[in-house]
Amino acid sequence: MTDPRWLTEHEQRAWRGYLDMHARLTARLHRDLQADSGLSLSDFDVLVQLTDRDDERARVLELAQALQWEKSRLSHHLARMERRGLVERQECPDDARGAFIALTAQGRRTIEQAAPQHVNTVRDLVFDQLTAEQVDTLLAISTQVQARLDDTQ
Amino acid sequence: MTDPRWLTEHEQRAWRGYLDMHARLTARLHRDLQADSGLSLSDFDVLVQLTDRDDERARVLELAQALQWEKSRLSHHLARMERRGLVERQECPDDARGAFIALTAQGRRTIEQAAPQHVNTVRDLVFDQLTAEQVDTLLAISTQVQARLDDTQ
DNA sequence: CCCAGATAGTTGACGTATCACCAAAGATAA
DNA sequence: TTATCTTTGGTGATACGTCAACTATCTGGG
């Protein structure tokens, strides 16, 4: 605790490289997606969740859990997306407190137009650069780190 | 372009796993750092840059380049850090437009107190979970993806 | 039926990120 | 010198994320 175990030179390079890669990668993905479709990465994630449902709608808390977002973040974000006509709120007959969030026609058109190019960019920038073994290792790393995150509360 | 090459099932799992890991990992690191020292991860990065200099100060654009931040982001951020007493502005005699940003005594105390625990958390959550080969692969992945980012403008 | 506590979702305040624009100072050339 | 071009840095508007507080509704025990 008070006696730190510092990172080795090699670990420091790996850590810095990882942080820099992530910052630059998401900045590029965000910029391209925005230019291509006017969507942010967050918009994209919300719309993907909705298109994955049979009826293209979901309860707010359901979405929050699927996205791993705080409910207030989602609430603010949905208000902005609703203003832009990407989603709409529908009353929930079972529970008058609740609301359904539904994809609008414009929301569906937008995500259907944006997704192919976005996937191509991810492929170009990431998966085309990696070997199959590296992809395996990336998944293993993600799994192991998340297991530790789960362990430590 | 119009004909997407979708990700394989395995690639999708790796991509989702990676995004989820990063979101959860940085959220945890941020929360712990904040609780321990009152610093944000951004504050931390700025302070590390300053402590790395001999005279514990730097020009604004120098910092912006080192951090890979936009100058306006840095300007706003420094204004807030200055208000909290972590850094101070000093006049630049060589160039009256310019400013030095210098670590304050409080800034130095804060980062020196915060860094060991932060490094321990990174080690606990990440490097203690990985084999040496996995760390190598992480560095290779970061390098390869950043090379592609460099290539594509 | 009534009320306490839980649940669904929103709101407001504040810190932060980005964008576009601005201003002051320096550099360069006529 | 003046004109203009570049560099250094800041500002204000707007969007976003988080926290705490809030409203409205539901649910279970008396």
Can you give keywords for this protein?
153 residues, 3-stranded antiparallel beta sheet, homodimer, DNA-binding, mainly alpha, Arc Repressor Mutant, subunit A
Characterization of this structure:
The structure is a homodimer of 153-residue chains. Chain A has 153 residues and is mostly helical. In chain A, 67% of the residues lie in helices and 8% in strands. The first copy, chain A, has one domain (17-151): Arc Repressor Mutant, subunit A (Orthogonal Bundle). In chain A, helix 1 (9-37) runs antiparallel to helix 5 and helix 2 packs across helix 5. Chain A starts with 8 loop residues before the first helix and ends with a helix. The mean pLDDT of chain A is 94. Chain A binds a DNA duplex (30 and 30 nucleotides) through residues 40, 42, 59-61, 69-77, 79-80, 92, 95-99.
Low-pLDDT ranges of chain A: none
Rg calc of chain A: 19 Å
Tell me the number of strands of chain A: 3
SS class of chain A: mainly alpha
